[in-house]
Each structure stands twice: as C-alpha cells, then as structure tokens.
TrEMBL record:
Positions that bind substrate: T134, D208, E233, K263, D267
Annotated stretches, region: Disordered: 25-82
Pathway where this protein functions: Amino-acid biosynthesis; L-homocysteine biosynthesis; L-homocysteine from S-adenosyl-L-homocysteine: step 1/1
Name of the protein in its database record: Adenosylhomocysteinase
Xref: Gene3D superfamilies: Adenosylhomocysteinase-like, NAD(P)-binding Rossmann-like Domain
A GO BP annotation: S-adenosylmethionine cycle
Source species: Rousettus aegyptiacus
GO cellular component: cytosol
C-alpha cells in the first residue's frame, strides 16, 4: 500500500485503496447529484463553546413547541429506544427531509461513504461528539455510522441545534442529546449523558470548541486510557489542546483540523463570505450599500466578511493587531483603523478575532443610535455583553436573536444573537463548504483510529498535506473541473510524486 510522504511532519500515512485520488473516473462517480443515496446523512462542526450561539432561523421548533424541558419528557423512537433527549421526536420526518437535501450538496462525504463502507475503516470505533447539530452534521454522523462507528452526540452550542434534525437522528437510532435554547446546566447535562453511560465507553472524541474534551478531563480522566485520539476543528478548541500539550497534560494524540488548508481556506473564508450577508439581512432587513462597517480582525473569517460587504457597496474599515494581516487589508483596499477612531460613525460593528473584550462597554456607550453589533468569531467573548445587563439599560426583544439595548437618553443599539456566532444563530451556512470540513473530520478520525501505536505521540498534529489534497479532489467533480496531471519528466524535475502531495508543509495557499 502506498505511503504518504514522510516529509509531512508525522510518520508515514498509509493510503487505503479507496482513498487513492482518481482522475479518470471521478466525474462519472461524483459529478451526479445523488437523487436517492440511502437514508444515511452527515455532520458538521464549526466552532464555539458552551456559551456560543448557533441556530437556524428556519427551525420548525421556534414557535410551535411547548416550553416543557426535554429533560422532563418521556420520549421513544419507533424502535422503542429512549436513549436520546431532543425537543420533539415527532419532528423526525421534517428533519429527514432536511438531511436528504444536505446530502445533495455534500458530494465528498457521500463519495467517502460509497468508497469506504465496504472496508469499514471505523469498525469498532466508539465516537463521542460535541458539534453543531445541523443537517450537515447529520450527514457526517450517518457517514461515520456507515463506516462502522458507534456514535453518541451532544451540541457544542446552546443555540445551534436544529430540533427537527436532532429528532431525525434520534429516530434513526443515534443517541443525541441536544435541543435549541439549552440552559448552561442543560448543556453540561447533555454532554454528560453522552459520556457517562453504562456499558459503553468512547475510544475517539470529535470536538468543536473543546468543551467535551474539558468535561472528560474534569469528570472522567480515566476514560483517556482507552481513547485513541481527539479531533478538534475550532480555534478555541485547538488553543485549549495546545495549552494542555504545553503543560504536559495532553494524554492522547490530537488532530488539529482547524488549521488544515481545507478548513481555513474554505470553511472560514468562503462560508463567512456568503453567510455574513444572510445573517444580517434576515435579522435587520437592512440595505448594505453606503453603510459604514468596521470588521475587527482580518483573518480568513474577516477576509470573507470584508469581501462580501465591499461587493455590496459598503464602506469597510478593518482593525488588526497583526501587521501581516493588516498589510493584507490595506493591499485589498480597506482602511486600517483603531476601533476608537470610527466607533461613533459606523453603522455596523462585526467582530471576528477569537479574542475577548474586543468591543467593550466604552465602545458600546459611544456607538451611534441604531448601530448594529454582531460577532462572527468562535465564542461569545468578543463583545462585552455582560456589561450591558445593568439596571440603567433596557433590553427589548425585537424578534428571535435580535435585541434592542436602550440607553437612558433613548439611544439604542441592535444586538444580534446576544454576541454569539451570527451566521449559525440567525441564518444558515453553505452546505457545500461544510462538506469540505466534515470530510476532513471524517478522514482525521479514520487516521487516528487506525494509526499503529507509536505513529502519533501525546501531542497536537496537523493533517498531512496529502489528506487535504484528497478532500479537495473529491469536491472538484461538482464543478466539472479537470485536473492537469504531471508528466513523469515534470514530476522528476519538481521532485514530486505524480499523485502528490504537491506542496510542502510550509506553503501558504
């Protein structure tokens, strides 16, 4: 079996036959949008912690469900199982339809399911997951199941769950513990129900934000004796893993999906470029042309937001701490400022730094009337929302995830999703982009689970370049794209294998 280039920074990665990049037959196999590819589906993770927000404005459950906590309900699926906790199991049919729609835009996961399900590379894997529970996540979960894994799942964000999708997963036999609008206590209870179950112990973790990993370290540290690895996809979660590694407390190998090329350059950039406008438009019905906007942070998320707003005719300012990102913003035609310099004049403030207290109470006090304030970063720490919960300020709910915060003199700001992740709280995100991230997560799980002892030590690893290239290749047939192949002479000249990897680890795309 072919090996991955040892120059990738880890031990050689063995490529199964089903994972060979195929040029001749790719179009025939994947270019067709599946009309009926079973009833199994996928998953997605984006990143956030327990207090982060992620939910779809299109959820059937927003207005129709009663206020009874799912924890107080006795529910069973059609098979008689009660090993789940969702808002309303009767909504499973609606959720199944959403999952089937998502499958059409997730060609790589469906291809992976078709190619690898015979080999069952995750047979024996017991995966506990904590991600956003959406139709895209359902496709991932059902793909993992088709590849042989057993899964138990909770939501990584109290607002991110699509209740009808959670119901569909529970109906299909997945132990899912999540619903939209969980309390903090509910959040940790759901995670515990996934982990603490008699007769079942996880041997793999798929996390988004690090809360699941944190909970196991805190409550069930002995579980790590049987856990083979952690796959983490968020900025916050990866940061936590590196802190554990630096302190010598990381006791299993971990795969950093967040910094893989297929996550950074596609999910973070293209997803936010499309979803920022959707989130703002759904919540405020505003016109973007001529509006003054300040975007805090010019990483991949910030780049996507700025590009979309500029294209709509907005006047965009950027704040940055990193001189390299700052220079990129300037070269892209944006004016680099300090937030204090423009806070009185801008119509919209968007944070996407991954930091805390980027927008403070002082900034909020100085904003103009009706300024819109929102966050596109991982966590809800970027805007100091807690400072607004004081007696002199009045909160007025306008619609779901939209609040007016009113000052004594009558000035008001429009706060979206209480400072939590805007696109996943107030709108939706492009399914195709999530297919890229979810496929990367699935391959990372397969690699860690099947890696021989000693290949990965107790540290944080980046995905091999070959894996990124494989994920990208699975999505190209959707565009009827045709890759050029190196000749033997060209490959020898460049010192490359004809099938990749084509770039060194230090290459910046």
């Amino acid at each position: 079996m072919e090996k991955w280039d040892g120059n990738e920074g880890t031990s050689a990665f063995h490529v199964p036959e089903w994972m060979q990049i195929q040029f001749a037959d790719q179009k025939q196999e994947f270019n067709k949008r599946p009309t009926k590819i079973g009833r199994r589906s996928l998953s997605r993770s984006i990143s956030q912690s327990s207090t982060d927000s992620y939910s779809s404005a299109a959820s059937y459950t927003d207005s129709s469900d009663d206020e009874t906590s799912p924890r107080d309900k006795q529910q069973k699926n059609s098979k008689g199982s009660s090993d789940f906790c969702v808002k309303n199991i009767k909504q499973a049919e609606f959720g199944r339809r959403e999952i089937e729609i998502a499958e059409q835009e997730m060609p790589a996961l469906m291809a992976l399911r078709k190619r690898a399900q015979g080999e069952k590379p995750l047979a024996g894997a017991k995966i506990v997951g904590c991600t956003h529970i959406t139709a895209q996540t359902a496709v991932l979960m059902e793909t993992l199941g088709a590849l042989g894994a057993q899964c138990r799942w909770a939501a990584c964000n109290i607002y991110s769950t699509l209740n009808e999708v959670a119901a569909a997963l529970a109906e299909s036999g997945f132990p899912v513990f999540a619903w939209k609008g969980e309390s903090e206590d509910d959040f940790w209870w759901c995670i515990d129900r996934c982990v603490n179950v008699e007769g079942w112990q996880p041997n793999m973790i798929l996390d988004d934000g690090g809360d699941l990993t944190h909970w196991i370290y805190k409550k069930y540290p002995n579980m790590f004796k049987k856990i083979k690895g952690i796959v983490e996809e968020s900025v916050t979660g990866v940061h936590r893993l590196y802190q554990l590694s630096k302190a010598g407390k990381l006791c299993v190998p971990a795969m950093n999906v967040n910094d893989s090329v297929t996550k950074q350059k596609f999910d973070n950039l293209y997803c936010c470029r499309e979803s920022i406008l959707d989130g703002l438009k759904r919540t405020t019905d505003m016109m973007f042309g001529g509006k003054q906007v300040v975007v805090c942070g010019y990483g991949e998320v910030g780049k996507g937001c700025c590009a979309a707003l500029k294209a709509m005719g907005s006047i965009v300012y950027v704040t940055e701490i990193d001189p390299i990102c700052a220079l990129q913003a300037c070269m892209d035609g944006f004016r680099l400022v300090k937030l204090n310099e423009v806070i009185r004049q801008v119509d919209i403030v968007i944070t996407c730094t991954g930091n805390k207290n980027v927008v403070t109470r002082e900034h909020l006090d100085r904003m103009k009337n009706s300024c819109i304030v929102c966050n596109m970063g991982h966590s809800n720490t970027e805007i100091d929302v807690a400072s607004l919960r004081t007696p002199e300020l009045t909160w007025e709910r306008v619609r779901s995830q939209v609040d007016h915060v009113i000052w004594p003199d009558g000035k008001r700001i429009v706060l979206l999703a209480e400072g939590r992740l805007l696109n996943l709280s107030c709108s939706t995100v492009p399914t195709f982009v999530l297919s890229i991230t979810a496929t990367t997560q699935a391959l990372a799980l397969i690699e860690l689970y099947n890696a021989p002892e000693g290949r990965y030590k107790q540290d944080v690893y980046l995905l091999p370049k070959k894996m990124d290239e494989y994920v990208a290749s699975l999505h190209l047939p959707t565009f009827d794209a045709h890759l050029t192949e190196l000749t033997d002479e060209q490959a020898k000249y460049l010192g490359l294998n004809k099938n990749g990897p084509f770039k060194p680890n230090y290459y910046r795309y």
